[in-house]
Write a structure and sequence with these properties.
It is built from 14 helices and 16 strands. It is α/β, with parallel strands linked by helices. The protein folds into four domains: 58 residues, no CATH class; 76 residues, Alpha-Beta Plaits (2-Layer Sandwich), CATH 3.30.70; 113 residues, Rossmann fold; 103 residues, 2-Layer Sandwich (Hypothetical Protein Tm841, Chain: A,domain 3). Helix 11 packs across helix 12.
Length: 364
């Protein structure tokens, strides 16, 4: 903007006696940026209300935001942390922020939509706001017809890519603090050109919304596989065979997910007591399926303790999906430990990129 102002006020520009329509077109062209040049589509701003945030917390948050977007501002004072980030997944930024404190001043703008609202100097008639909004909507090409389609809920770029590679058509971003609604699921279903669609909730709190979507769907048959975790969802997708009978495949998937134990490593956001375990804010929590199995102070050691609880003599496969707050080096060190400690198990390491959870581990 400063460069444009200098040019407008320059001697060369002032020599133009009257602004012509051509001049106006040239300036319009400068403002008309192709949406593809916008790397991240949502300008996201908010405040985190937290007393005296320490530098480590602010720096960790800033590093995380760098994994999901750019144009980052992350500054703090005695009472708040001010956040500005351009991202395609504002919900992930909010999830991470909620682990630090309450939010206020939330503002999310769709920058691609703003770029569609450029001035047309040659139009003989002005369009109404409704007409402009309709014109800005991208034209949806009808997808090829499929026998079976899939909708999965996930969080993290790596996990999303894994589900797509396994054949999932639509992945909905979700998580512990941002569960998709029945409407979100039905909107994803509408995008798939198939008569039979499988829903993988991958979270016990989303199963009910998925079942409600199945009841409301009129022209498509929805099959809800009650997956309570991402590893169960991945295991279910390995049952997919093109051309298989949907009813039979649904039963195979439901049976397959019972053989999966899910271990997750996260951290406590507040102090509490569960059973005989005293939990302090910031403690590392090791969850085995739906229960807290380990409470510790160190991520690596807590993960090793959790694995000792999860792996049995019958275990054959251990899959590790490391999160956004874990370095590749630390993840590889853990994988090497697992291979040495459990030589009878096949070990697979994948970048999940999920927020909140340092590790999501599947034991089968």
């Amino acid at each position: 903007l400063e460069g444009a102002l200098k040019h407008i006020n320059s001697e060369e520009a002032l020599q133009v006696a009257e602004p012509t329509q051509q001049t106006a077109k040239e300036y319009a062209a400068l403002a008309s940026v192709d949406n593809e040049s916008i790397t991240f589509g949502y300008c996201t701003e908010f405040f985190i209300n937290v007393k005296n945030p320490d530098d480590a917390t602010v720096q960790q948050l800033k590093s995380y935001l760098g994994t999901i977007g750019d144009s980052i501002v992350c500054v703090s004072d005695d009472e708040i942390i001010k956040i500005h980030v351009h991202t395609d997944h504002p919900g992930l930024a909010l999830e991470k922020a909620l682990t630090i404190g309450s939010l206020s001043g939330l503002k999310i703008d769709n920058m691609r939509e703003q770029h569609n609202n450029i001035i047309d100097f040659t139009a003989s008639e002005k369009k109404t706001p409704v007409e402009q909004a309709r014109a800005a909507q991208p034209v949806q090409e009808e997808r090829p017809k499929k026998d079976i389609g899939f909708v999965s809920i996930s969080a993290g770029s790596g996990l999303t890519a894994i589900f797509h590679n396994l054949g999932v058509d639509e992945v909905i971003e979700g998580g512990q603090t941002m569960n998709p609604s029945t409407e979100d699921i039905l909107n994803a279903v509408d995008k798939i050109n198939a008569d039979h669609i499988f829903i993988l909730p991958n979270n016990k709190n989303i199963i009910l919304a998925a079942e409600q979507a199945a009841k409301l769907s009129e022209d498509k048959k929805l099959y809800v596989i009650p997956t309570k975790s991402v590893p169960q969802g991945i295991s279910a997708m390995f049952c997919y065979e093109e051309g298989a009978d949907p009813e039979e495949m649904a039963e195979e998937m439901k049976e397959a997910i019972t053989a999966v134990a899910t271990a997750t490593v996260t951290y406590a956001v507040r102090e509490t007591t569960i059973g005989d375990k005293e939990i302090h804010e910031g403690d590392i929590l090791g969850m085995l399926n739906d229960s807290i199995a380990v409470v510790g102070k160190d991520i690596a050691e807590s993960t090793k303790e959790l694995l000792a609880e999860a792996v049995t003599d019958e275990s054959e496969m251990i899959s590790v999906y490391y999160g956004a707050d874990v370095t590749e080096e630390d993840a590889e060190a853990l994988a090497a430990y697992i291979e040495e400690t459990y030589p009878d198990c096949e070990v697979e390491l994948q970048m999940g990129g999920q927020p909140l959870y340092y590790y999501i581990i599947s034991v089968e």
